[in-house]
Specification:
This protein is an alpha+beta fold and about 240 residues long. The protein folds into two domains: about 80 residues, Pseudouridine synthase, CATH 3.30.2350.10; about 130 residues, Pseudouridine synthase, CATH 3.30.2350.10. Helix content is about 25%, strand content about 35%. The chain contains eight helices and 14 strands. Strands 1, 2, 3, 4, 7, 10, 11, 12, 13 and 14 form a ten-stranded mixed β-sheet that branches. Strands 5-6 form a two-stranded antiparallel ribbon. The longest helix is centred in the N-terminal third of the chain and has 12 residues.
């Protein structure tokens, strides 16, 4: 008996499409988020991949990929989730990007600091604050990304947004180094928090380490180590996709 085409399609719906859901990735240093997405698209054989917030190339840690049509429809909801980061701030030098990948544009002596002074400065930057947006960011001005304008040497007016920040585990490691953890709302630039903290301490600084630990209820401990991503077989990556 020859079955109708519509019956065959229902019996074996979209056999070549990957499952739809979330893929938790632990992004290594020196990869952009878009590098990870491009590699994943090739392995999973799909163009339908979104994300819940990118990471700078210097940063490591949790990147949530939204795989398939049903998951990408939920991108706006996932972008709104709070995030947790662990960072290291190095004082005495400011870079144009406010992280270690930028060029040094300012140097300033670091005054004598104590653990109490550092904790007090972080406390003053807690709660709802107005945060400057780094010039080297993907924020758009008149349809153009700010980092493209900055690289072209264009003069850019400083933009700000309001975010909510909670500081924990703030630790003065030595006279020029501060480690800290922040839980923050959508739209927060941890580089900007480092810039503001240095300013509160009457000096300048830039981030030298940044790792994202959590996005909403999802933790980097449960993520796939993307340093092995290029060599990962398709079926292995399929098994890591979490159903919505």
């Amino acid at each position: 008996m020859r079955w109708p085409k519509w019956y065959t399609m229902l019996s074996n719906p979209c056999p070549n499409l990957p499952p739809s859901g979330l893929l938790l990735i632990d992004k290594p240093k020196d990869f952009s988020s878009h590098d990870i997405i491009a590699i994943s698209r090739r392995i999973l054989k799909t163009k339908k991949i979104g994300h819940s917030g990118t990471l700078d190339p210097m940063a490591t840690g949790l990147l949530i990929l939204l795989i398939g049509r049903e998951a990408t429809k939920e991108q706006a909801r996932f972008l709104q989730l709070n995030k947790v980061y662990r960072a290291t701030l190095t004082l005495g030098q400011e870079t144009d990007s406010w992280d270690a990948y930028g060029d040094v544009i300012k140097e300033q002596p670091v005054p004598p600091l104590t653990q109490a002074l550092v904790e007090q400065a972080a406390h003053q930057l807690s709660g709802e604050i107005e945060q400057p947006i780094p010039f080297f960011s993907a924020k758009k001005i008149n349809g153009q990304k700010m980092y493209s304008l900055a690289r072209a040497g264009e003069k850019i007016e400083r933009k700000y947004n309001r975010v909510n920040v909670t500081w924990t585990d703030v630790c003065l490691k030595d006279e020029k180094t501060i480690d800290f953890t922040v839980r923050c709302s959508c739209g927060t630039y941890v580089r900007a928090l480092g810039y503001l903290l240095a300013k509160k301490l009457n000096t300048v600084g830039h981030l030298t380490k940044l790792r994202r630990l959590e996005i909403g209820p999802y933790h980097v401990q449960n993520a796939f180590d993307a340093s092995h991503l290029k060599q990962t077989p398709t079926e292995i990556l399929y098994k890591r996709i979490i159903s919505l």
